[in-house]
Specification:
Layout lengths: L2 H17 L7 E2 L5 E8 L2 E7 L2 E6 L9 E7 L3 E2 L3 H7 L12 E13 L2 E10 L2 E14 L2 E11 L19 E11 L3
Antiparallel strand pairs: 1-11, 2-3, 2-11, 3-6, 4-5, 5-7, 7-8, 8-9, 9-10, 10-11
């Protein structure tokens, strides 16, 4: 075999090997993961995050259609940057965390749309209300780990978040942008 052919064969094998995921991601690394949100209050943008969440994942980027993911977010772990707001948002009018302590997401379908880009369809349940959500997911390989990022717009009225005097959108907007950055690992 000539040198050019050997080099092409070696490059082809290396390229193929770099595209094959050795094992599916099966857990998340909480210290390297986050779930954040942005909203507008009286026209001013504000940010928040959830400090406690858990996930079960089984995702191989090469076999996305077989992937599964579920998340549980502890609503009382909300951090809006204001202790007063944190206490208010867990009340019955907002998350009602005493009756509904967790928000849940369960994937139904994951499909690849481009290299390292996917579309996820699943059910999001908050405060006893469940709705289908669809969002883009980006995968960035990081050695044996992978960074999974994405986001979607949640309509708080769909989940009865902000009842009574908070039901109108003049103080707190209906649209809440939810973003996540999840480091997934092959180990459990």
């Amino acid at each position: 075999m000539n040198t050019v052919l050997k080099s092409l064969l070696a490059l082809s094998v290396a390229a193929l090997a770099s595209q094959v995921q050795a094992a599916p991601y099966q857990s998340i690394v909480p210290a390297k993961s986050s779930i954040t949100f942005q909203f507008k209050q009286m026209g001013v943008s504000a940010d928040g995050r959830f400090k406690k969440f858990a996930a079960q994942v089984n995702f191989d980027p090469a076999k996305a259609e077989q992937g599964k993911a579920s998340f549980e977010v502890e609503l009382a772990s909300v951090d809006t940057g204001s202790g007063e707001a944190d206490q208010e948002v867990v009340t019955k009018s907002w998350f009602n965390a005493a009756a509904f302590p967790k928000a849940q997401f369960v994937s139904k379908q994951i499909k690849q749309t481009a290299p390292n880009q996917y579309e996820v369809l699943g059910t999001l349940s908050i405060k006893g209300q469940s709705r289908e959500v669809k969002f883009p997911l980006k995968h960035t390989p990081q050695g044996k780990d992978g960074l999974l990022t994405g986001g979607f717009t949640l309509k708080r009225a769909d989940y009865s978040i902000g009842e009574g005097m908070w039901a109108k959108f003049d103080v707190v907007a209906n649209d809440i942008q939810v973003n996540f950055s999840i480091t997934a690992s092959q180990g459990k």
